[in-house]
């Protein structure tokens, strides 16, 4: 299965990110706790230079706790990182103190010049649908940034003062995912980072069902068997029928993917090592 992505979009994003970076003191990078490797783009490190960066694994409520712990242990070698849930609010209280620590040098430089400290300016970056708006809303304590369950909903450009210590840039830089590896593309599609129009839902659902089986992930019925037959079962169970009573496997696949993304099949981490 190949997923189309547009080089023009990448070039534009890179330009936008570089422009915005000059205005910020630190960057919060959001990655998906279900795919901590596949949801990050290595080009970011290159763009950031020595700008302080905090890595947050979001959607920990949908990932397997034991894997989140393992991932964080390995990722901390590259800098500060912890898990959050932008929806439940878990872990968000750690963000401000961590950013203050990361930018302490800037604060003492300002103090050294006799300047009053100003809030830390932070840009939030991450791939589409990773939870950037949800995080900003939670931290701002209100519905200040639009959220949605379709990738690419964020528009506009605005600073949001969270409190006297932090200001967030409300046009979070979108990162393009790294698609060269087809497995990465599938995982991004399975977790909802890619628009549904650009991949084949049936093919993806069959791949995911097989992946779950091969990795011994226990899932509730009717998902426990594998392949096309299961799409038939899912369709029958969910009432996805066409004229003549035949199962609509395309609709069944979409239903299955929707349930997986919402965590109805339990918590799952797709990136493992
Ligand atoms: N379960 C769960 N869902 C989350 C979490 N954070 C965000 N979401 C959901 O993920 C979807 C996308 O969230 P947004 O905040 O709109 O993501 P975004 O990164 O701003 O999206 P773009 O505007 O496409 O870049 C929404 O349906 C959120 O409710 C989380 O921690 N847990």
From TrEMBL:
Q: Where does GTP bind?
A: 58-61, 129-134, 173
Which Pfam family would be a valid example here? MMR_HSR1
Q: What's one GO-annotated cellular component?
A: cytoplasm
Recall the GO molecular function terms of this protein's record.
GTP binding; GTPase activity
Subcellular location per UniProt equals: Cytoplasm
Q: Show the PROSITE patterns listed in the entry.
A: G_CP
Q: Which InterPro entries match?
A: G_CP_dom (IPR030378), GTP-bd (IPR006073), GTP-bd_ortho_bundle_sf (IPR023179), GTP-bd_ribosome_bgen (IPR019991), GTPase_MTG1 (IPR016478), P-loop_NTPase (IPR027417)
Q: Name one GO biological process term.
A: translation
Positions of the CP-type G domain? 14-177
Keywords in alphabetical order: Cytoplasm, GTP-binding, Nucleotide-binding
Q: In the record, which residues are listed under signal peptide?
A: none
Sequence similarity:
Belongs to the TRAFAC class YlqF/YawG GTPase family. MTG1 subfamily.
Role played: Required for a late step of 50S ribosomal subunit assembly. Has GTPase activity.
The protein's name is: Ribosome biogenesis GTPase A
- Species whose genome carries this gene: Acididesulfobacillus acetoxydans
